[in-house]
């Protein structure tokens, strides 16, 4: 009797990234998981420009005065490509096909839309205020409550020596 063909998942793993440290941890987790499952990775960055709220990749796409650069999407996409390439090199192991998605909009909404055909959604956790490690960021919370697929919230890496 022959062994049945090993089937590989055709659905990608989706990871949310914005260039922050928690997002980088999420990308590393998602790359490892994609290697283990033998599937592709869809790295998603949602950007909303407001002069008072910038983080991660968005910061690279604004001028010193806070004005939006017309090629914001291109710059955010290039920052994502550079970051993913660096993390892939650090991780090593089998190659994972990576699709980059860069859309303007509310991060949770963009992530949920991008994960409609995915097998797993990975996001980073962001602690805030006095609760620190005990609370999730608003995007993580919304994704967990509205996703129709398994979600992994990767905790931020903490320096135990500084605690």
CATH superfamily: HUPs
Mean residue pLDDT: 80
Instruction: Give the strand content.
Output: 15-25%
* Uncertain residue segments: 127-135, 159-163
Compute the CA-based radius of gyration: 17 Å
Count helical runs: 4
Strand line-up of the largest beta sheet: 3-2-1-4-5
- The counted number of beta strands is 5
Residues in helix, %: 25-40%
Q: End-to-end distance, in Å?
A: 58 Å
Salient structural properties:
five-stranded parallel sheet; alpha/beta; globular; about 160 residues; about 15% strand; disordered C terminus; 4 helices; Rossmann fold; 5 strands
Descriptive report:
With 163 residues, the chain is of the alpha/beta class. The protein has one domain (13-162): HUPs (Rossmann fold), CATH 3.40.50. Helices cover 33% and strands 17% of the residues. The chain has four helices and five strands; from the N terminus they run βαβαβαβαβ. It has a five-stranded parallel sheet, sandwiched between helices. Strand 1, helix 1 (21-37) and strand 2 (41-47) form a beta-alpha-beta unit. Helix 1 (21-37) crosses helix 2 and helix 3 (107-114) runs parallel beside helix 4 (138-146). The longest helix has 20 residues, at 72-91. It is globular, with a radius of gyration of 17 Å. 34% of the residues are buried.
In short:
The protein has one domain: HUPs (Rossmann fold). It is built from 4 helices and 5 strands; from the N terminus they run E-H-E-H-E-H-E-H-E.
């Amino acid at each position: 009797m022959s062994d049945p063909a090993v089937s590989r998942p055709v659905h990608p793993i989706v990871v949310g990234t914005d260039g922050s440290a928690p997002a980088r941890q999420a990308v590393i987790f998602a790359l490892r998981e994609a290697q283990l499952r033998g599937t592709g990775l869809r790295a998603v960055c949602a950007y909303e420009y407001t002069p008072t709220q910038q983080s991660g990749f968005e910061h690279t796409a604004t001028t010193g005065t806070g004005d939006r650069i017309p090629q914001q999407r291109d710059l955010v996409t290039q920052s994502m490509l550079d970051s993913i390439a660096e993390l892939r090199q650090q991780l090593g192991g089998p190659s994972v096909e990576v699709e980059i998605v860069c859309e303007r909009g509310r991060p949770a909404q963009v992530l949920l839309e991008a994960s409609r055909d995915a097998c797993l959604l990975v996001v980073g956790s962001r602690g805030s205020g006095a609760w620190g490690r005990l609370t999730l960021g608003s995007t993580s919370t919304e994704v967990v409550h509205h996703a129709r697929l398994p979600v992994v919230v990767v905790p931020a890496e903490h320096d135990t020596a500084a605690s």
